[in-house]
Amino acid sequence: xxxxxxxxxxxxxxxxxxxxxxxxxxxxxxxxxxxxxxxxxxxxxxxxxxxxxxxxxxxxxxxxxxxxxxxxxxxxxxxxxxxxxxxxxxxxxxxxxxxxxxxxxxxxxxxxxxxxxxxxxxxxxxxxxxxxxxxxxxxxxxxxxxxxxxxxxxxxxxxxxxxxxxxxxxxxxxxxxxxxxxxxxxxxxxxxxxxxxxxxxxxxxxxxxxxxxxxxxxxxxxxxxxxxxxxxxxxxxxxxxxxxxxxxxxxxxxxxxxxxxxxxxxxxxxxxxxxxxxxxxxxxxxxxxxxxxxxxxxxxxxxxxxxxxxxxxxxxxxxxxxxxxxxxxxxxxxxxxxxxxxxxxxxxxxxxxxxxxxxxxxxxxxxxxxxxxxxxxxxxxxxxxxxxxxxxxxxxxxxxxxxxxxxxxxxxxxxxxxxxxxxxxxxxxxxxxxxxxxxxxxxxxxxxxxxxxxxxxxxxxxxxxxxxxxxxxxxxxxxxxxxxxxxxxxxxxxxxxxxxxxxxxxxxxxxxxxxxxxxxxxxxxxxxxxxxxxxxxxxxxxxxxxxxxxxxxxxxxxxxxxxxxxxxxxxxxxxxxxxxxxxxxxxxxxxxxxxxxxxxxxxxxxxxxxxxxxxxxxxxxxxxxxxxxxxxxxxxxxxxxxxxxxxxxxxxxxxxxxxxxxxxxxxxxxxxxxxxxxxxxxxxxxxxxxxxxxxxxxxxxxxxxxxxxxxxxxxxxxxxxxxxxxxxxxxxxxxxxxxxxxxxxxxxxxxxxxx
Length: 755
Description:
Elements: H1 2-30, H2 43-55, H3 64-79, H4 81-92, H5 105-131, H6 134-137, H7 148-175, H8 185-194, H9 199-225, H10 231-240, E1 255-256, E2 259-260, H11 282-290, H12 296-300, H13 312-330, H14 367-371, H15 386-389, H16 397-401, H17 408-423, H18 428-440, E3 479-482, H19 484-489, H20 491-507, E4 511-512, H21 523-527, H22 531-548, E5 558-561, H23 564-573, E6 582-585, H24 586-595, E7 613-615, H25 629-638, H26 672-684, E8 692-696, H27 699-714, E9 721-725, H28 726-735, H29 740-750
Parallel strand pairs: 3-4, 3-5, 5-6, 7-8, 8-9
Antiparallel strand pairs: 1-2
């Protein structure tokens, strides 16, 4: 007993000493980042999220099989803590039992049951890793680029925890000092097997098993603190301090030293975006260290799935590995070297070297690591390649799927901000975008006098408010109809706003538009990293809208728009600039009008045998703003046969236009819109002569899908498939019940299946 006690305590002191040193190092490294204010606001809601995502494993359970295995493994760590309490007690008293509950059969059963569940979870993880091994699936594997060796060591260490637990508990049972008489079915069963060995032998096995159980735990602890499985401890913290409700929707304002940057008079030492790893906030550094390398983000990324070098997982891993390698210069007092005579030649080596990993161009903690650019080409030794940085569509699929709430999109946009505002390094197409938005007030570069041309062909007058003359909304005007740049200047999108305006007219909704006084919300500029241009345009728009809504409280400042990007910017980002409005998507308002009986859709007489429509979820309507049901409810109300694409709702595949990608060419891999169109055509069964419609609720998506269908039609694939906005389908349905004379104008307005 004395030898066991001494060895057990000695192992613990040494193990915890090494662990404490590593924990302090990690704490200092993470807290070396810039301030991140607001990360502890709303404590009550954060506690709720913590319970749901950490203890409830809500995000992980979206992936049923691996999610359930992880659920049991997590609870194994929690419940088996009681076994370790018993183990340390047994160092002092071989018959130790936890006070009050230590001999409950229910506790013994729970301990053994969860240990068995963890064992079978290990089997599941092993099968998944073998089936999805990068050697088998290459880039299709979500584990491609992950540190695979550490994962296998972790599974082995957890297995060691399980078998050593049953060894010392079974031997204790056979030796006659096990606290449970029943319930602990596996431990008692092992005890029955060991009982013939005799009490003395079993006592030795008990002591050896006990020390092995404690030793495995301490070795596992030190290993975890030095590996990607650090998420075991950091994930609960990261989930608790995440953006609320999640890292989607609005982008965060640019801050330096935790304070918003005044673009009219910025401080001389203000940090614009992220140009070095130390420019990230402590929350960003915590994100990097928390990454589990599970690859869920990678598996959902539209850029990665179409052959581009961007993997959200590899971006976070590269930033983490660079952070750790640069740590001696950040927190250990090592002097930062100069850039003279440093060789940035790529080394192409490392523990998980894949071509897409920028960090592994230069490994180690040498002087090259300290001064290498955060964003740069292979020749420059960049941690993140420009082709990686600018491939992002900001669709949010990575953030949506990440089980530990890493905010990938925020970090990518922050790096873009530095490249645009400080380095002036960005794709050439964005130069045209910025000039158009700055000089003309819209990405298309059209004159604002043409903003109401879309209404000329309507057989009713669209109301226009003269904001320049100081007009405010009439008391009986309920909605301001925000047309958006696409609705005003793109031929595809014009049909959407025409249909929406006609439906609002038919329903008797009191609304008005801003006409030529409307300007771009600045969404594309912001997501391209040009925060200065966004701030300039947004301030102007907020000032104008506040004057239009003068004397109205925020809940009555209602705006309806057909563009999810405008919806997100007006409703979720303008509050950062004191612009508070109630913004709804047109499908939300139209769905309400149908429910209220103000619009009456009529189902088609013959729907055919196959699906006639499939709905594409716009990223900024779905993932970013959680609007999934209203468009589908409207499609159902029209009576059309609807079929879901395999990737839909929160797993919908991006069209490829977000993150300012609408204005950039795709030079690498398959075009994202073609990937989405191929999925839609297959869903509609339209590879032959069948006809169908891809419905959507975003002008950008409509353009991208239309372009994709045009290309596929030229290849004699999906020639009879068209694309329409949900509002167009609804207008057609409403017009079915009208007289032929009344229906005629709507036919030209709402039919564009040839797009």
